[in-house]
Amino acid sequence: MKYEIVLSLGLIFLISLVISGILRRFKVPSITSYIILGIMLGPLGLNIIDRSLLSNADIISTVVLSIIAFILGQNFSKENFSKMGRDLIYVSFFESLGAVVLVTAGVYILTRDIFFSLALASISAATSPTSVIMTVRELNAKGKFAEMLMGTVALDDLWSLIIFALILALIRNAAYPIRIIASLGAGSIEIAGSLILGVVMGWGLSVVSKMIKSTAELLILTLGFIFFNAGVALVLNLSAILSSLAMSAAVINISPESFKFFNSVRTVDSPLYLLFFVLAGAKLELTMISTLGLVGAVYIISRMAGKIAGVYAGGLFVRVPSNIKANLGIALAPQAGVNMGLAIVMASACPDEATGRVILSIIVGTTIIFELFGPLLTRHALIRSMASEHI
Asked: 322 near 376, Cβ under 8 Å?
């Protein structure tokens, strides 16, 4: 019934205020509070969230991830890149690669199955941008560490998609080397197409915005371009996240008043983030944690170790400050929507259906762990880094 959806939305917003207020006293991030609330109100708890709302959660996820990617793209201004562009590229690449290398090694030592190990490792590089940006905003974090974290998360998704495309091509066509080249070509076209679409959309937004007079019209225009861009990307089988990043990067480097686009979006995005995480919590299948086993534990440890070690390795090449080397890898703990999407693709691509189900189960189970505790680690890293920057 329609009234049940409206009633569910009202309860979500009102109860979230109470729950997040209580848990905030115990230094629990709002994101974790929203996920816990989702578990409480979802099928595994009180079961008062309408099922039709849960079945449409993917639409909300696409909307929120597109907005998040757009906001992250502002870190790619010429000024930012002139200050720390080289640092960002090295650190983000090495932390992504570090996770892939260590997860591959750890899982292979345990299973002696190189393709299974690579399949899991290909999913490990991505970080949940929504969790990170919400934690940064909640703490009102400023300074070089916060800027580096936001920029790293933005580039992190680009690297993760490239690495995933390479490994997916290898697994799909291990017995046919010629096909590997074709698959790599298709992956390259998807990435390039996403970036080109985003740049074109960003140019269009900059041009059309010159005719806008009021703040309300600017908000409508900006959201319209974000959603239209994401929709076109999905129709063309491109990455909505990469395309949104590219659109934002184009806007901030083309328009002299680019800040107005980001300021307008920030006036309405908080309720969407809340709904995103509550529904994510409601959809979590906590029983999947019991299926993790030793491989899941190795995945969690190896992924975190790889990101921490990767940040150190990248930091050595570009000599970033010690507080970034010590804290950035920890701050990149959250794992969510992007990883789940990659896991679904990888599971369907596996020649053995049973292996695909195992991969999906492990990623779902570890995502529950990372979504509950990842924001806590991000918050801890931000507080430590801000303290050291103000000494």
From this structure: no
Question: CATH: 2.60.200.20, 3.40.50.300, 1.20.1530.20, 3.90.226.10. Which one for 57-268+294-365?
Answer: 1.20.1530.20
Q: Where are the domains of the chain?
A: 57-268+294-365
pLDDT tops 90 at residue 195: no
Tell me what percent of the residues of the chain surpass a pLDDT of 70: 87
**Spatial CA neighbour of 378 closest among 8, 28, 77, 23:** 28
Cβ atoms 232, 281 nearer than 8 A: no
Any residues with CB less than 8 A from the CB of 177 and at least 6 apart, and which? none
Chain CA centroid to CA 212, Å: 32
Two structure tokens written together for 198? 């985003």
Provide the 8-state DSSP code for 64: H
| Dist CA 332 CA 343 (whole Å) | 19
Residue 191, H or E segment: helix 177-208
In sequence order, the 6+-apart residues with CB closer than 8 A to the CB of 163 are 96, 97, 100, 122, 125
pLDDT digits (tens, 9 = 90+) for 331-340: 898 887 677 6
- pLDDT score recorded for residue 301: 93
Show Cβ contacts of residue 32 under 8 Å, excluding neighbours closer than 6 positions.
23, 372, 373, 375, 376
For residues 239 and 233, the answer to whether their CB atoms sit within 8 Å is yes
Alpha-carbon dihedral angle through residues 184, 122, 77, 142, given to the nearest 10 degrees: 180
Q: Residue 285: which region, alpha, beta or left (left: phi > 0; alpha: psi -120 to 50)? A: beta
Q: Each residue of 87-107: pLDDT tens digit?
A: 888 888 899 999 999 999 999
* E strand or H helix that includes residue 111: helix 78-111
pLDDT band at residue 391 using 50, 70 and 90 as cut-offs: low
Tell me which long-range contacts 346-352 makes (C-beta under 8 A, separation of at least 24). 346/119, 346/122, 346/123, 346/164, 346/168, 346/171, 349/168, 349/171, 349/172, 350/119, 350/171
